[in-house]
Amino acid sequence: MSTKGGVTALPRRNYRLASDMDKPRSTGIVNEKLLSDYLHHVFPSTKPGPTVASLRKPLGFQDLSSHLEKLLSEGETPEEENKDPSAEGRLGPQPVVLDHTSGFEGLLFVDDDLLGVIGHSNFSSIRATTCVFKGKWAYEVLISSQGLMQIGWCTLSCRFNQEEGVGDTPDSYAYDGNRVRKWNVTTTNYGKSWAAGDIVSCLIDLDEGTITFCLNGQSLGTAFSSIKTGPGVAYFPAISLSFKESVAFNFGSRPLRYYPAEGYLPLQDPPTADLLKAHRLLGYIKNVLSTSIDTQEEKLLEKDSAVWRLQGEPTVLITLAHIFNLFAPLMCKVYLVEDVLMNFLLGILEGGGSVDEHPLIQQLLDLFWLLMEDHEVNECLKQLMMSLLRAYRFSPIIPDLGFQIHYLRLTTAILRHEKSRKYLLKKITFDVLRSVVFFYIKTPLRVKEAGLEELIPTTWWPTHFDKEGKDEREPKDESSDERLRRRAYERGCQRLKKRIEVVEDLQVQILRLLLNNKDKNTGEASRYIFLNKFRKFLQENASNRGHPTALCPPEYMVCFLHRLITAVRSSWDEGSRKSPSSLSSEDAYVPPQLFYNGKVDYFDLQRLGGLLSHLKKTLKDDLATKANIVIDPAEIQAASMDDLDEDEESGAAQSCQRPFGAAAMGGALARPSWLSSPTLGRANRFLSTAAVSLMTPRRPLSQPEKVKVRTLAVEQRTEEDIEGSHGNDGLLLGRPQEEPDQPITDKSLLEIIDGIVMMYNLSVHQQLGKMVVVADEVHEYAVALKDTEEKIARCPTRRADILDELQKSQKVFSEKLNHLSRRLAWINATIYSKEKMLDVYWLLCVCIQTIEHADNTASLFAFTPEFYLNVAMNAYSALKNYFSPANSMDELPGYEETLTQLAAILAKHFADPRIVGTDIKDSLMQALASYVCYPQSLRAVERIPEEQRVAMMRNLLAPYEQRPWAQTNWILVTALPPVCQGCGFGYRYTRLPHLLKTKPEDANLPSLQKPCPSLLLQRHMAELLSTDKDMAASFLNSVLNQLNWAFSEFIGMIQEIQQAAERPERNFVDTRQLKVCATCFDLSVSLLRVLEMTVTLVPEIFLDWTRPSAELLLRRLAQLLNQVLNRVTAEKNLFDRVVNLRLPGLESVDHYPILVAVTGILVRILVDGDKQGTSRAASVLLSDPCFQLHSIQHLLGEPAESAGPTASASERKHFSLHAYTDYISLEEKQKVEEMLEFLTEESKQAAASTAPTSEEDLCPICYAHSISAVFRPCTHKSCKACINQHLMNNKDCFFCKATITGVEDYSKPSSSLVS
Question: pTM for the full model?
Fold first, then answer.
């Protein structure tokens, strides 16, 4: 006997006992008669013969091999006789695969077995190696993605290219489930839409000349008839698919999932002889399992096979060894594993109950490992898991999800076997399989076939909307019928949710098995194998962002993330119950030392402080003093050199490495990670230099010893490296002094949580945003249906034609809503349920806690990966935008405190000098801007400590010269105006008033957030601008500069738009240009609101001329206001003409938003101020050469004097504040009238008192003011306004470019006045 893996195994070819020849009448195990009866019972003959034991020939182990071979040969027919005569209509090799040598066009990835294919170019095509010319044939295509593909048949003469594929040439025929059409040069509607997880059967009848397609076993009808047949015509299976689309073919190498109609054969012959042998051998195994030997009574007993145990009985073991001698080689073939073994194991679990109630599968796996060679068990398990995954993924959705539950139960049973689980984890689960599929619950595209009509018989959708077009959660005027419908729909949704939860519980059970850290009997615990494989899985998806074909689909990642969170939290809490001093999962966080001690590989992901190699150089002293980690200079040098030549080396390495899969480009392309084992690329090799020595003692109470780092690859780590032991902190090596010294949880769980956060950042958040589109569609159709029903109610009875069309539309909308509401119920149960919301909320809390702990480490905060801040911001955004209104954020535990913590993080870190990445800084700025737009989050900002609030406002008001341009826009446009929205002049709207006037029923109009002004933040802003005069001047200068730029750009763009519209030829304005134009307009309006807020809060900045820059700022403000008024209010001007074009994309461009903003500023400085201030403001405004009184009159709809009393009504009709009574209060209108009266009087007095000025005395720069300043040392002159504005941005003289050292007042000499 031999020993394998600690288990005794019998030799393969000789099971004859040594005593058999010496003692022919004794077996040495049981008596000869009883053994003979037992063997005859286990191995019954299929031929008629004596049934009485006394008449049968005695059978012992010495005769068993020949007897078994004789039994297996019974019923066999010679190969020539067994051959199906209909197979003569086929040409080509067996097995049938995809032709990756010559039968393709374009770029393709082809799987190892030459059956799976992924498109990697615009429109790629490939055919099989075998063709058919007569008879009936079929093959199946497993749809992995639901995009653009054309599947069918083609002849050898078909020539495809990047634009034309299968079905686009005369002798090719295809079905396209994406566009629901059939193709043969021309195209017509055909079939149903397919979805990922569907199976398409392609049938060709060359005797009748027809081609038919089936979807999930249901015939779609004859697609083509009278196809070309005859001599020289043979058809190949073929497919054309676009970029990223993927399928897998089954020509017969595995059992067809849906056996075709009678008479059709798979292209590849099934292994009939092996299939017969496997079924017979399995029958013999079943006989062994159901038979026991009573040695005392010397008789055989029938028993339930479910209670069979592998107890080491020699008779049973040797009998099974003879069977497995023939059975084991057969179990290495995929067809036999799927058809024989998988169905047998599934049958064991058919009785129901928990998986624990069926120990027979564990016993059988023990038997496999005992009696089969290691390579045979490995291959058998590999094929078994692949078959299970394929069956799970491509099973149709039925109401009770029975198929999915069935396959998951067997997967759970197999993974309960320790040795099998560890082998699958090490070699199969992540390396070969898309194992994440096991945690995915696909969304049905066709609700009727999925049985959702039975599960949710009553549908419902919102029918009540508020003024902003949003759904009301519990409308007060809901009728009793509507309430009954809604409640019936909610009950149906709950039924669906409970059935989905059964599948989710099984998926969590699988992950709990993979996270087992106690199964150390056969080597390393499962959790540590899983952890290293999980990390490599993340590396694949993080390092291949530019190669979509290599990425795990985001819909899989979403489900995987939720199941993993549930399993990890369960394991965490289980450990915390055993150790009361450790944290619960509610308070989970990732300690900061994971980010810099090198034990966890973050690949090439960006850190907050920049590149890791840079941080290791610049912060090496801080690492030594705060974390007792010393970076080896040789490691830093190696990292620096590696960074220089990394690309060249990695390119050479990849070119020398033979790809695992056959790329249909002559092997020029490396296969995606899904189709082969991942290889170590740039990120792993480069960043692995940050790993730490394992021989590190635990931090002693005395002066700690410095630790020197060395390289350590992820796959080389052991349990000790992760958890630590006997003086080794494992993953928590290098604890900073600020970090509390208390147990958290198993260190392996910390790294898994870190991976969960990374996974959310990679693709989960993006997918959560995509799935909201179904809810949006429901809303749009509900609004359209309600609008249609209102039109039907108003339709005159005499217009039967209109009524008929409206009723047709009503029917279409209702049918679509019935479908979408059921589909939405599925999505809400699988993606947006309350439990999933709690998962995302927990992830948000983890990120917040982690950031806070990392922030306490001072400079070491720079090592924190950027994705922690990204996930914190995105998780909050998802909770606010994606899960509502189905679930309310207010119901989350401790939500207000969490909001405050997040507000403190955003307020502190948006201007944190430790953060260097421009993208993450922009994201922080945008998040903060969004945060202050909503009442609940704005209150959270107000709850943070006052010191942090003041620091935040100081950073917001900092001059933009120190920031990137994009951040400046966000600061000035988004972060500040919401602070004052609701306080500004006519600034209380959420829908643009001018659009509501023209399109009151349009639900798609742009909307703004409801005003929620913060008096507290306004007070902080006022105090800062009042006390810090230099900062106030710099801030307002930046605002005025940007307003000047934005409005000038806007005017230039509308000139181009107007010119394009007036050309006689038909011209279309570029949508991008329209978008930029609208953005410049919105920016101008927002900047004007910022100025209005500043004038309101701190009027002395402009009106107190004891401040050095007040007069200059007031003159610049007046100049810009006059420019805006003149451009917008002039009669029949450019602005009017473009607004009247009503171009799509320019909906926000109108008189009201910009004119009320300008009016608000004018009212603040001319009406609301003290007498001295208003006098100064009026004087500056009137002295500006661009000032025109009729622009102010225009605000109240008063015609310009030039129009005259005889002007027509159309000429007199223009903008007026009187037309917006819902948005302009009576008090505001009175102030405008008062302002107009005041300016009218002041302008008359100014005109009477203004003395003529000679041209020589005017400023040579602006020609608007008298010369009042002289420059030193060059003595050139200008007015004070021009030189002060110039010196804010430049120190060189206007004229001679000499550096200006001083500016003195200038007055004209008296002699000049006399002369």
Answer: 0.84
